[in-house]
TrEMBL record:
Residues 15-124 form the DUF7032 domain. Keywords: Repeat. InterPro entries: ARM-like, ARM-type_fold, ARM_PUB, Armadillo, DUF7032. Residues 242-496 form the U-box domain. It comes from the Eukaryota. Pfam families: ARM_PUB, DUF7032. This is Armadillo repeat-containing domain-containing protein.
């Protein structure tokens, strides 16, 4: 028999592909030996993928070594079709014999698929991939999208390393442009398993594969599929030994996956905690990788045992404290966030943070001379101070000993709006501390800055500023100092004058706070006299008719002062 021609080979391949499709369709109608037939269908799918790629071969791409393999495949398909027919018609002679025959058939198809893969791996057919299926347009139907993904999967399965990498690049581009591709990838478990397997492959293939998995991780509902495919162990290995690109994508994947605390133990079991701590402590890695690693660790410390292990590791807290001083905002933000999670409701860990200089580092973020470059860092540093320091005497003492009030006052006056609001929240917390702290704040100049927030657009901001100011002027020394500046009292009275068009933003809630401040000020003789003689007394009396008891008390106190003044004039 002569050597098979290229056209004859193509005909044989097409015939095999058609027979596989027909056999798969027939197998779905079989009611017996369902597990066996599921296994056979999986083997047929693998074989189909390999043979489908051959249809892209041009005439010059034919290789004689395929002929015997295609012939063997056709023979196996004929035998399997016979077994399927007998299962459908229940005409087999015995169950044990049929089970044995089906096992032999599954092994046969597996052997054919591996043989075809070896041929591809040897590079014999790589030149035949000149014909590439075009990516469907944006309005393409789901079947066209699925066909394109299946073609890419075929190239990943049977192509050489460069072909695999190129197919992965195309897949990533498609998933980035259209979410439908992500769904198609998830629907085909074979492709997910393939991507996970590529994490232990050559560097270029590994990088593109971990990028693809990161796209999938962006859809939280699909993360369970990835975890069940065993993705966590390979991701940790990439974190340990991959390229810089691979490590960054791997850390981002793990950060997404560990948002579900159930996956934390799996990361720990595969050595992920040690790998992440090593990245954070080593100065040679990029800020993006360190920040993502901090993000993963932040998720992991939600498990108490993992948090304890991290704290007991040498220099762990020192490492994270040093990261607060990073020049990269993303590292600052994520390291502070991590420390917040570690110290939450844990006085012992807070004490370690103080000993390692963590509070000083947080304050140093606020003292950054560039007010625009790190507003997000300043916000989260203030949030950390708010969360950590007021419940811990040690943290609070450390805070007050490093010129924190100077930096806070500067941000309250000159910060970005979001930073100002964070600074105001911390200021409000400070104003609830003992009188000595409030006296220091009064001397430092906090009261005039708080007055500026009394007419803010946000009700929450107005409330915080009002409460903070009320607390400060409850100290006699501060009250006297506040009354010395005519602007302070005059501004508050103007805000209470509802007939003034400039006070359209005022509401009953703000009015209540302002009346409380004025009521406190009446304890100071000079302030009381200024209020009574300001010309706004009628406005206050009008408020007393609508605003309730506090306004009435204020009017009564001011009226008594006016009566005493009249008596002193008579006598």
């Amino acid at each position: 028999m002569g050597e098979e021609t290229s056209d004859e080979s193509r005909t044989s391949i097409d015939k095999a592909i058609e027979a596989i499709s027909s056999l798969i369709s027939l197998s779905h109608s079989i009611k017996s030996f369902t597990v066996k037939w599921q296994l056979i269908r999986a083997k047929l799918d693998d074989l189909y993928s390999g043979l489908a790629a051959l249809s892209n071969l041009d005439s010059s791409g034919h290789d004689p070594s395929l002929s015997s393999l295609i012939s063997a495949v056709l023979t196996s398909l004929t035998d399997c079709y016979d077994l399927a027919t007998r299962c459908v018609n229940v005409t087999y002679s015995g169950k044990l014999l049929m089970q044995s025959d089906l096992d032999v058939m599954a092994a046969s198809f597996d052997r054919h698929a591996r043989s075809l893969s070896r041929i591809y791996s040897a590079g014999i057919l790589s030149r035949g991939f000149a014909i590439v299926v075009s990516k469907p347009g944006g309005g393409a139907c789901k079947e066209d999208v699925r066909f394109y993904v299946r073609d890419l999967m075929t190239r990943m399965k049977v192509g050489d390393l460069e072909m695999k990498r190129q197919a992965l690049v195309k897949l990533n581009e498609a998933m980035e442009e259209d979410d439908r591709y992500v769904k198609i990838v998830i629907e085909g478990n074979d492709l997910v398993n393939l991507l996970v397997g590529f994490l232990d492959s050559e560097m270029g293939v590994q990088e593109e594969s971990v990028k693809a998995l990161f796209f999938i991780c962006g859809f939280g509902s699909y993360n369970g599929v990835l975890v069940r495919s065993g993705v966590i162990g390979p991701l940790v290995r990439v974190l340990e030994n991959g390229s810089s690109v691979g490590r960054e994508a791997s850390a981002k994947c793990l950060m997404k996956l560990t948002e579900n605390s159930e996956n934390a133990w799996s990361v720990s079991a595969h050595g992920g905690v040690s790998a992440l701590l090593k990245i954070c402590s080593c100065g040679e890695f990029s800020g993006e990788l360190i920040a993502s690693s901090c993000g993963v660790l932040r998720n992991l410390v939600g498990v108490e045992e993992i948090k304890r292990y991290m704290i007991e590791e040498d220099d762990t807290m020192t490492t994270f404290v040093k990261l607060i001083g990073s020049k990269e905002e993303i590292v600052q933000v994520n390291s502070i966030d991590l420390l917040l999670s570690m110290c939450a409701k844990d006085e012992q860990t807070r004490e370690v943070l103080v000993r390692q200089g963590g509070i000083q580092e947080l304050v140093s973020v606020l003292s950054d001379p560039n007010p625009l470059s790190s507003s997000k860092s300043k916000e989260i540093a203030l949030r950390a101070i708010d969360s950590l320091c007021f419940g811990s005497p040690g943290c609070l003492n450390a805070l007050m000993s490093c010129k924190f009030l100077d930096h806070l006052l500067y941000l309250l006056s000159n910060g970005e709006i979001s930073v100002q609001e964070s600074a105001l929240k911390v200021t409000s917390r400070l104003c609830s501390l003992p009188e000595e702290v409030k006296r220091i704040m009064g001397d430092a100049g906090f009261m005039p800055e708080l007055v500026k927030f009394l007419d803010a657009k946000s009700f929450d901001v107005r409330e915080m500023a009002s409460v903070a100011l009320y607390c400060l002027i409850s100290v006699p020394k501060n009250r006297k100092k506040f009354a010395q500046d005519d602007f302070n009292i005059g501004y508050i009275l103007k805000l209470l004058d509802h007939d003034d068009g400039r006070n359209a933003s005022s509401d009953s809630g703000s009015t209540k706070f302002l009346i409380s401040i004025l009521m406190s000020l009446t304890s100071c003789n000079s302030a009381r006299r200024k209020i009574a003689s300001s010309g706004y007394l009628k406005s206050i009396e009008k408020l007393a008719e609508t605003e309730g008891s506090d306004a009435k008390k204020l009017v009564k106190k001011l009226s008594m002062n006016r009566f005493r003044s009249m008596l002193s004039g008579i006598f």
